[in-house]
Design goal:
The structure holds two protein chains of two kinds. By secondary structure, chain A is an all-beta fold. Chain A has no helices and eleven strands. In chain A, strand 4 and strand 5 form a beta hairpin. The chains are: A mainly beta, B mainly beta.
Chain lengths: 111, 111
């Protein structure tokens, strides 16, 4: 089945720890995106990538980093510099930069 | 991207049509109207989009007024599984950046 997978579903972070959220797609989409969603809020863009080995900062990139070494994969690292990381993280991909298709999300909690 | 206005919540009886309105009075000529929905704790799901003509797919119909300043998403026979937050988004064609999700409309389908 084609789609976007995110793992893990739940992730716990300790103070000062970096954690990496996985996003994989087998839809052959060029563009991929990372969003953050806080309770009762809309989505805010963290990073996006239009093509392999290229990515751009979104509106709230501070404290996050990404890589795009393969077309299928766009991992997001939440660094210790992100002081308020508790949120629902959503990955999306798009073939035409029009319609975006979302993964199931990863919920990050701080211990 | 143009700003959209949606009612915060609506109820609909199961089996009846759900009509979700959206105002986008500042829409530009090259901006499309997109609808997504998000079921609780899941990633958003694309529903439908259109430019000026009415559109229909297996999920819903989109009615856009002639002046394009408002639109209505119609779920013809709502089921309990359609309970979700519905987002109306206006976005220029070819924009590689994020979808700007507002607060949306919480649709509750009642048995």
């Amino acid at each position: 089945d084609g789609g976007i997978t995110q793992s893990p579903k739940y992730l716990f972070r300790k103070e000062g720890q970096n954690v990496t959220l996985s996003c994989e797609q087998n839809l052959n989409h060029d563009a991929m995106y990372w969003y953050r969603q806080d309770p009762g809020q809309g989505l805010r863009l963290i990073y996006y990538s239009q093509i392999v080995n290229d990515f751009q900062k979104g509106d709230i990139a501070e404290g996050y980093s990404v890589s795009r070494e393969k077309k299928e994969s766009f991992p997001l690292t939440v660094t210790s510099a992100q002081k308020n990381p508790t949120a629902f993280y959503l990955c999306a991909s798009s073939i035409d930069m029009e319609t975006q298709y979302f993964g199931p999300g990863t919920r990050l909690l701080v211990l | 991207d143009a700003k959209t206005t949606q009612p915060p919540s609506m109820d609909c009886a199961e089996g009846r049509a759900a009509n979700l309105p959206c105002n986008h009075s500042t829409i530009s000529g090259n901006e499309y109207v997109y609808w997504y929905r998000q079921i609780h704790s899941q990633g958003p799901q694309y529903i439908i989009h259109g430019l000026k003509n009415n559109e229909t797919n297996e999920m819903a119909s989109l009615i856009i007024t002639e002046d394009r300043k408002s639109s209505t998403l119609i779920l013809p026979h709502a089921t309990l599984r359609d309970t979700a937050v519905y987002y109306c988004i206006v976005r220029a064609s070819g924009s590689a950046r994020q979808l700007t999700f507002g607060s949306g409309t919480q649709l509750t389908v009642l048995p």
